[in-house]
């Protein structure tokens, strides 16, 4: 399992569900990166997301490969990569589609601040 300040890769549905349950209890913001190994914008944004994770240990960052966990991607209606969903206590609070660094950062900061309050 990854330490705080890292992006946690979910390779199985079990790990995905385990992470969601764990974070639901902690009330932390969860940012999920729906990605694909063949997707150039996903590869572009991955190191940026890793930087955010290092700077924001109060936020949980998860990564889901849509080819690995197709059922999870379908469940969250992911149609383009990368898609970032923002969850609070298991509920969807925001979504960013595309490798948009500024929009991603603004959404993280907006929802993470609410969690700290």
TrEMBL record:
InterPro entries given in the database record? Thioredoxin (IPR005746), Thioredoxin-like_sf (IPR036249), Thioredoxin_CS (IPR017937), Thioredoxin_domain (IPR013766), Thioredoxin_H-type-like (IPR050620)
The molecular function GO annotations come to:
oxidoreductase activity, acting on a sulfur group of donors, disulfide as acceptor; protein-disulfide reductase activity
Q: Which domain of life is it from?
A: Eukaryota
State its location(s): Cytoplasm
Q: Active site located where? A: 39 (nucleophile), 42 (nucleophile)
Q: Write down the CDD domains for this protein, in alphabetical order.
A: TRX_family
Q: Which PROSITE patterns match?
A: THIOREDOXIN_1, THIOREDOXIN_2
Give yes or no: UniProt keyword DNA damage: no
Q: Which cysteine pairs make disulfide bonds?
A: 39-42
Origin organism is Turnera subulata
Please report the name of this protein according to its UniProt entry. Thioredoxin
Site (Contributes to redox potential value): residue numbering on this chain: 40-41
Site positions (Deprotonates C-terminal active site Cys):
33
Q: What NCBIfam families is this protein classified in?
A: thioredoxin
Q: Does the keyword Transmembrane helix apply?
A: no
Sorted alphabetically, the Gene Ontology cellular component annotations on this record are: cytoplasm
> Which keywords does this Swiss-Prot/TrEMBL entry list?
Cytoplasm, Disulfide bond, Electron transport, Redox-active center, Transport
Tell me the ranges covered by the Thioredoxin domain, including all copies.
1-113
Question: What's the family?
Answer: Belongs to the thioredoxin family. Plant H-type subfamily.
Q: Tell me, what's a Pfam family for it?
A: Thioredoxin
Chief place of localization: cytoplasm
